[in-house]
Amino acid sequence: MNLAIVGATGVVGREVIKCLELRNFPITNLYLAASAKSVGKIIKTIWGEIKVREISSKLFEQSDIAFFTAGSEISKLFAPLAKINNCLVIDNSSLFRYDPLVPLVIPEINGAEAFNHSGLIANPNCTTAIAALPLWVLEKNFGIKKIIMSTYQAVSGAGQAGLDELEQQVIEYANHQELVVSKFSHQILFNVIPHIDSFQSNGYTKEEMKVVWETQKIFKRPDLAISCTAVRLPIKRAHSESVVVQTKSKVSPEKFKKLLSQSVGVELVDDVALGQYPTPMTAMNKFSVEIGRIRQSLIFGEYGLEFFISGDQLLRGAALNAVEIAELFIN
Ligand SMILES: NC(=O)c1ccc[n+]([C@@H]2O[C@H](COP(=O)([O-])OP(=O)(O)OC[C@H]3O[C@@H](n4cnc5c(N)ncnc54)[C@H](OP(=O)(O)O)[C@@H]3O)[C@@H](O)[C@H]2O)c1
What we know:
The protein is α/β, with parallel strands linked by helices. It has 2 domains: 2-123 and 318-327, NAD(P)-binding Rossmann-like Domain (Rossmann fold); 128-313, Dihydrodipicolinate Reductase, domain 2. 32% of the residues lie in helices and 23% in strands. It contains 10 helices and 13 strands. Bound molecules: NADP nicotinamide-adenine-dinucleotide phosphate.
């Protein structure tokens, strides 16, 4: 296949390259594009050294599939150009996710929907994608009534600039300098910030509402009661989430653990006696989401569970999901 990555120099774009390499994706040509500042840069891949180019009609003419990892503005400008050049877009931005005509796909859950595309497939938000894998096990086997989620999100969720700001503040702190704040609304070093993306009229942030809208769409459960509080922490990579679930039928930690052990995309890390539970440090660079601290809910009793997950949002939550969608089209 001929593939293009639009936004290849960003944190998600670089992860897509890594993922294609790790999964031995059958590639004839790989084209990498980014902003004018990166044009001409050389990126080393297992398919050779590739020069970063600008986004153009020719890029899409030459490609069967383009991964868009450059934000909503670029998707808005260039996804139509890819479409008229018969290049399938797998979009990582939030721009098309809520369009009823665009499939929003997590291959482990609703992979078949990818084939209903009309030139464009949306990749979910990374926070949604990580939680959806274990939640789907509960939905399929017990039915879900309600979900209450709180997140602990890494700075790389805000792109390279977010990562740079945390690293810069560490250096400034060590040098007794004033900390410069630009990407986040407050100092992120030694802090937690309950504000990711813009505030909506209902008091939730857009990041929180993405979890609601997207889980309902992917699970085909517009009635699903779900609420989220999304919080940024000074962690470099991998998001964590504390999840409380009320189920329709009786559930137990033992039954859930057994089902998880037979599921793809999740790894049970749950032995508190040995100090084993999910953490961003251990979840980093893994294809699976770590899940642990599974317990019967004190609030919902036999009809509820609480658990903690950590997943690499750049890899599992974004790049791997996008590459898995592309893999559906290999044949
Ligand atoms: N970070 C995450 O955890 C995450 C997870 C899921 C989805 N996403 C989504 O993925 C997308 C990329 O996010 P990111 O975190 O990877 O951001 P990032 O690190 O800031 O990377 C942005 C990429 O877009 C390119 N770009 C920016 N302006 C451009 C322009 N005018 N023309 C062409 N290319 C341009 C950049 O190129 P230069 O390097 O040349 O500037 C870079 O390659 C966003 O839609 C984001 O919402 C991010």
